[in-house]
Description:
By secondary structure, this protein is of the alpha/beta class. Helices cover 40% and strands 14% of the residues.
Amino acid sequence: MFRGKEMREPDCRDFSDSLFQAVLIRGMKQNPIIVALDVSGIDQALRLVDQLHDLAGAFKIGSELFTLGGPDIVRRIRDTGASVFLDLKFHDIPNTVAKAIASANQLDVQMLTVHASGGLKMLLAAEEAAQGRQPNPPLVLAVTVLTSFDSNELAGIGVQANVGKQVERLATLAISAKLRGLVCSPLEVVDLRSILPASFQLVTPGIRTGPSGDDQKRTLSAKEALQAGANWLVIGRPIYAARDPRAAADEILQSL
Ligand code: C5P
């Protein structure tokens, strides 16, 4: 088993080296499942963390929960020992994004997101701010084109490229800014892997085991996404909306 010096012991099961080597980030667990806490109650979020702490590599706090619970919910989840992915998708002038990341550093989050469309200077400022926390700077993930966008929607904001080309352009920008990861659709993973440095961390939502009955249309199963080259899987409703979230998370883990 490959272990970084500062890795904690994995909480759950062993994964084979080949598939999970790239998953290792200092301070993070080896389980690739990130549970999206897209719930509207603080108690519900904390209950999920309690139920799933040994079955999840990290918990994602997005705008909904953060707007409700603020920094306190981040601290409370970090206090349980769980890793936190702060998904607030920062997009602002470089100085403001750098300060927002400096604030996130105080909360000791392990991953956070910025919009790659904020431009090279903003991305450079974001990574520099993240590196301000040593050791263990948070992993700054670039969001390329939101999965809710199609080429028409891009044209509506003045971008003439199709979605694939725009994703590629923004991924290249993230590389230029020395970022170390990005968020993408599972169906973009293979193409992105061909242009990204091998160490680049790819985080994919859109994970479903069967046909999705919700708004995720372009999906892969957890195993397929990892085989395509994803490092981390963001999974929300299939876990938190399941009758038994623990059984659902365990079933996904077993499937890997
Ligand atoms: O419930 P579900 O598994 O679809 O949750 C996916 C999570 O990933 C949500 O928190 C959603 O906001 C996030 N996400 C996404 N697509 C993106 C970026 C983030 O679904 N392109």
